[in-house]
Design goal:
321 residues; alpha+beta; 5-stranded antiparallel beta sheet; 6 helices
Length: 321
Amino acid sequence: MKLDTKLTLFLILIITIVLSGYGYFHVMTRRDILTRKMKAEVRSIGQTLKVSLEKISLPREMEFVQELIDAVEEEEKTLGVIVYHRPKEIVFKSHSLGDEVEPYLGFIQKAMEEDLPKEEFGVYKKFHVYSYSFPLKDRKGRNIGGVSILQNASFVEREIRKAERDIFLTIFILIGGTATFILLGTRKWLTQPISQLMEATKELAKGNLNTQINLKRGDELSQLAEAFNQMAVDLKKARQQIIQGAEDRLELERSLRQSEKLATIGQLASGLAHEIGTPLNIISGRVELSKRRLGDSEVQKNLDIITQQTEKITKIIQQLL
């Protein structure tokens, strides 16, 4: 696997982890905001109902209570409303609600007992619901009943799923775009310069010391390229010095061999001159002695010839020396 691919995968992994964490945090934040908003809306409706219902006489104005409940039910997200009047054991409920209201009557009674509003998340007829129950008081502050508002919480899950899809698509696009830019960037700024360095190193290993790398970008790879170029120049100089040194040694060896040859020839000439000169001296001496004793002209002539030839040989030996 190439270096740019490894680096790209590593950065994609980091980006994926970071974006996934951000996406999870965003979804949780979105869920919390929607839940808070839903609770605020339900509490606002509950406060309106509380004020209206505490100012009327529940048993006497049953029709008004039902109309009020139906008006609240018209809200798109409100699943239903349950109103319980304890003294008369009267239960008012929205038309959309069936007979499965016992659990919510229990929430109302619990809120009346604790004299505090109660919040619960649950499921009603396959709907995710949020119920908000609170007690009702008369003018003397006594608990006379309670109300439970059922809010359809499915829209929260729909919004969360939509947010998850949007975040997933955004993360996918960001990762794809980032990976493309990283891959192109690493190939241009990292892989290609390294490839040039590798090719130049191979050429240098083959003996091509004229190899140079042209990278002028002001980064570490450019500095490495400059160091490589300087190394190639130094190696070329070193090779030239080695070649010159080898040639000088060869010339010196040739000179030494020539000197040895001349010395050998000198020794040979000296020995030859000595070996030949000694007999020539003896011959010359004998010829001179014979000339003094003999009076024959013909013999004298021959002796002169011998003398000339010995002198000639003597000159040759002197030239040889």
